[in-house]
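$ fold --in a.seq
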Amino acid sequence: MFKYTVLCVTLFAPLSVHAATDEDLRTIREQIQQLKQSYEQRNAQLEQRLQQAETSSKNAENAAVQTTATAQQASRPATSSENSFNPAISLILSGTYGQLKQAPTIPATGFAMSANPGHQQGFNLGESELGIIANIDPDYRGVATMALSPAGGVSMENAFVQSSAPGNGINIKFGRYFSGLGYLNEQHAHAWDFVDQPLVYASLWDNQLGEDGVQVKWLAPADMFIELGGEVGRGRGFPGSDRTKNGGGSGVLFAHVGDDIGIEHSWRAGISLHETKRVNALSTAVPDLLGTAGGVNNSFSGDSKTAGLDFVWKYSPNGNISERYFKLQGEYFRRKETGLLTYDTAGANITDSFSVTQSGWYLQSVYQFMPRWRSGLRYDRLDPGVATSGALNTGSVISNYAFNPSRTTWMVDYNPSEFSRLRMQVSHDQSRQGLSENQIFLQYIMSLGAHGAHQY
């Protein structure tokens, strides 16, 4: 614009130069100066806008780089709050008081061949859990969890290395870990919504299936949550038998799918398959037909195959879980065991074929009705099935108990912070035929140090 104006003035000025006065020249110079200043001001504004645009573009690029880095970090094993170099150490302190009428060592009717973690009467310190977590390098993360028994002694609950180095949504875990089957199995005791596990977990998995082996999970690159996984293990965890042999002793396959519905609803469903072997698995004090008053000891060797279904749905008004939320979950497991049963190992010692299919399920809900306060309700039920035994033991082994163990449980807990929980639980237990009782539990759970977030 400035150059064009100057050119016009230059071309047409000679036509009237003969009549121009000093006043005219002064006016022309002022106009030219004004045009020059206007041009310079406009040019400065354009340069300022250009600088702002370049800064905005650079910030956007930095944000994109940061987002990409965050996404890459999220695809790696979760590190919670642990330092990349110094291990994060946590200690879970817990204890209960149990008011029980019946001896807690009596198993659920029809499940004498299963484990019985049971409860303890009176004051009980319970296990303390010591955890150590740290990143090993950009590709590996280590986790160790030790259970400190109140009677003395330390057992290694978890000790595994986790890696997402293969990429493409693949995550590998090797060492000692809780199996990925079902929904509750991977959760540590301090994260349970009730004092104890459902009857089906206590009877079929001895509370939790732990394994030494390798686990591989694949997270599909989709908007919907799709996870597939498999495990090969030693088979040490119940119902397997820890054997000295090459190769694997157990296998697990599982699949989980889930999604969000708006900001208030989310859900997850899954299916699991587990297979292992039991070798000389001894059951004590079994109330068989021809046994003594204290029962007899039986031994079983054979195959154990279990299939399971799990589902969880969560709802929180406006997506604010700190105020209120509701969670509904349930699981179903069905197990078939086939092999050889030795009846009364200390006496008759008779071995013959044996087969039984047993199942169990639970349905529970937890409602946080106000900040820090929750209440929950759970119903458990087991089916001991109808056993088939060889002719040699038909008259000795009970094939049909005609009884379904069940239990109804209510709890309320107060959470002063995310690191502490105080709970009261009341159960009407009908898991043992003719020995129904009401149970009362008081529990505290306290977390010290850095502790990672729990899974969905």
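$ fold --in b.seq
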Amino acid sequence: MDKIKLTNHIKDIELKNKMYKVIDKANKCLKNYEVTQTDFLNPFEVKNAISILNSYDDIKFSVDGGYENSERSVIFIYPFYMEYENLEHTLSFLQIDGNFKFREVSHKDYLGSLLGLGIKREKIGDILISDDFCQVILSYDISDFILFNLKKVSKNNVSIKQIKKEDLINKEIKFKEITTTISSQRLDCVISGVYNISRQESSKYISSDRVFVDYEKITSNSKILENNAMVSVRGKGRFIIDSIGDMTKKDRIKLKAKIIV
């Protein structure tokens, strides 16, 4: 399949390069009749990949992040005569246990310890955190390496074990609800209102490729946001627009948002 033709509509270079890799995987499956898989992709990347893969007639594909509504998923690509349930290797699941009573650990700590082993971020899916342990979804081919080499998380000794998909605990996301007013539904105005920063500062985040709306990189301040949009600002965090309400007496728009904590 023609990479240029299939990705001609994509302007973002980083996204285009990821889609090139997806096409390479699909072509390899077509040529050698073998199962291939992508790295972990976010929902926007998965959406673009599915659009491309639907152009192929002689392959099947399945999206799997380990559990329902996962943030990061792998796309498995296989010959048309196979079924996903019969694939030999798909995802792997590990649980990292430790005594964290005196030193709280975060998603950043777990991820940092895994990347510190030399593992690429795209090989790791969602990290589900509980009080004394976390569960990691990852590519099958790096599972044993982590089992034998990860000894500490944030200076805490840890133990690791393989678990089954059915053992995953999908913890509910915690939010901090805020109410504010904004002058416009423009992206820069919304970020400024939610994080209580100036529009000039929010514009800097946008122009430096640090802002994503529903996982899509946005570089325009004037992007109009609607209810339920999820905004990620690298360096600040993520929030979901709960509701955009009526106008105030000072002609400002009422906004309710949920900051993910």
